[in-house]
Structure formats: structure tokens, C-alpha cells
Amino acid sequence: MFLERSINQADNIGWIEVICGSMFSGKTEELIRRVKRAKLAKQKVKIFKPKQDTRYSKKKVTSHDNNSIKSKPVNSPEKILELSEKFDIIGIDEAQFFDDSIIYVCNKLANAGKRVIVAGLDMDYRGNPFGPMPNLLAIAEYITKVHAVCTRSGKMASYTHRTVKNEDLVLLGDTRRYEALSRREFIKVKRKKK
Ligand code: ADP
Ligand code: MG
Questions:
Q1: CATH number of the domain that residue 48 is part of
Q2: Of 17, 30, 94, 185, which residue is the catalytic one?
Q3: Which of 24, 122, 149, 184 could form a disulfide bond with 20, CB atoms 3.0-4.6 angstroms apart?
Q4: Nearest ligand, measured from the Cα of 178
């Protein structure tokens, strides 16, 4: 009886998957792909995003390729906890915009048996680790780093370069404000700007 119960409890444990990379690397596409597959298997899925990400749509998670899926914009990670109870899979996009309580929330969800899929920018436009992402990567069971194509060299890009003059850490935008660059090209533009 005791053994049976502990096996059942073990079955109820979830896990955390993180999808990270630069802008245009396909994080949102990958999140949407995983979620659509889970839905085919009749899993109950809910996607959240920070309220401040209004780039394409208020109520959808949208990739730069215009793939989209319904999502719930929330002000804080605690709200995700509140709204997740009846779902098997929790997707979170643009996780870099949340505060550090997202780490506690993801652990809590996984401990409660949910599969948590988190997508977010690993670095900001200066090339520094972004918000809670380093800690999310530390607590995740599975990590996928995706890459964009460097718009200057055609090589693999893992940096996001801001092409407009603005020093706010958060500046929403697309290809009119950002470009994906390889390490080499990123260093080159940074040197020129000095
Ligand atoms: P992310 O969520 O990582 O910003 P998305 O999933 O929204 O990325 O978008 C990925 C899509 O962006 C690609 O499939 C492609 O159509 C488009 N794209 C635009 N610029 C680039 C680039 N430099 N490298 C790769 N994909 C790009
Ligand atoms: Mg995205």
C-alpha cells in the first residue's frame, strides 16, 4: 500500500522544459509546435505570456512567421499559478519579462505534476543574461537552445542586436528594431559603436 502510494506520487511529478535563444531563433515556433502535438493527444494546455508583450496580438502568442496560438496575458507569475490548476501542460512565452518569482512558480507547477514549457530570450540586446532566464535554465530538466540566421554573415546567430538608438532594457520590436547576429558580427558592431 505504502509502495503503491509512493509510485503514484512519483507518477504525478512533472518537469520543466526551457526553450531559449536570440530573437528570431524560433522559440515561439518551437513552443507552438510542442503545444500543438500535446493537444493532438488530448492534453489540456494553457499558454501564458506577460501582459507587456503586445507586439502582434493581446491574446495570442505569435511567431515572427505568423504562426499563432491562443494565450492568456498575465501581470505576474502568481497569476499563472492561480489559473493553472485544471491543465496538464503550461506554456509560458517571453519568460524573460517576468520577475524572479517565475522560478518559484515553475517549480511549484512541475512539483504539482505539470509539464511546464518555458520560452524566453537568454540574452538582452547588450549580450547579458536576461532577467530570470539563467535561473530557469538551472532548474529545468530539459533545455533547448535554438538559433537564428545572422543577417550579416549567414552564419549561426545567438545574439540580438538593437538597430535603433534606445537604451531601455525592454523595447518591444521586430525586424525593424532588431537583428540576429553571430558572435563575430555582434562584437564588430559593438566595437564600431564605442
Ligand atoms: P522567436 O520567438 O525566437 O523570436 P519566432 O518563433 O517568433 O522566433 O520566429 C522565427 C521565425 O522568424 C523564422 O521561422 C523566420 O520566419 C523568421 N525570421 C526572421 N528573421 C530571421 C533570422 N534572422 N533568422 C531566422 N529566422 C528569422
Ligand atoms: Mg517569440
A1: 3.40.50.300
A2: 94
A3: 122
A4: 1
